[in-house]
Q: What sequence folds into this?
């Protein structure tokens, strides 16, 4: 994400991502901040390399950031319910319903989502999660997101049907789908999913590799 000129990278998984192979060069990614939702390998795979190469600040939960601090990365821990003002905006760590083991099997703490508030927009990043009533707190107390990044691939997270319900709970009609197509169990039928969102009046973006879009 380019937020007012600050480069904020979310859960980088590039080197071992079959969809990204040959399409993204790590040297071209120059993050100032790396936001992490949990410790699974398909979310933190390229954190160490990118953080060290760019001096990026790694933001995540206490256990995840400790793991990267041990690898000489610059880190800042948040925990669920906590918020912090960064130069690009306010980041609030929210709960997610998932698990969070690190790639080496060590404890990755609690998984989380984020709400990012900039001077112009509010973006909800659900992280890997199932549908949760916690989502109703967002529009009620923190403001309706202009855009929500929701997992839709099913099997390991909520599927598209629950993501549509989640969009309703957070009162957001612009969704970016994530956590789909990378591995066989989470391959989706794009036409079916797009139509299901369209039928509910929700705009769905299914980003392809290197696709750029604005909020
Ligand atoms: Ni996960």
A:
């Amino acid at each position: 994400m380019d937020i007012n000129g600050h480069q904020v990278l979310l859960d980088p998984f590039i080197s071992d991502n079959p969809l990204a192979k040959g399409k993204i060069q790590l040297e071209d990614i120059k993050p100032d901040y790396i936001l992490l939702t949990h410790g699974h390998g398909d979310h933190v795979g390229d954190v160490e390399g990118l953080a060290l190469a760019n001096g990026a600040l790694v933001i995540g939960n206490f256990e995840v950031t400790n793991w990267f601090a041990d690898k000489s990365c610059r880190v800042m821990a948040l925990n669920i319910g906590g918020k912090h003002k960064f130069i690009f905006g306010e980041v609030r760590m929210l709960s997610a319903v998932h698990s969070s083991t690190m790639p080496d099997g060590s404890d990755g703490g609690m998984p989380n989502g984020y709400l990012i508030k900039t001077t112009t927009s509010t973006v909800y990043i659900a992280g890997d999660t199932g549908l949760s009533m916690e989502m109703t707190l967002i529009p009620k107390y923190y403001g309706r997101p202009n855009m929500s990044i929701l997992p839709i691939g099913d099997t390991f997270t909520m599927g598209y049907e629950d993501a549509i319900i989640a969009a309703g709970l957070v009162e957001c009609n612009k969704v970016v789908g994530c956590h789909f197509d990378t591995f066989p169990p989470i391959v989706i039928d794009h036409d079916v999913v797009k139509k299901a969102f369209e039928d509910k009046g929700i705009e769905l973006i299914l980003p392809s590799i290197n696709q750029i879009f604005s909020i």
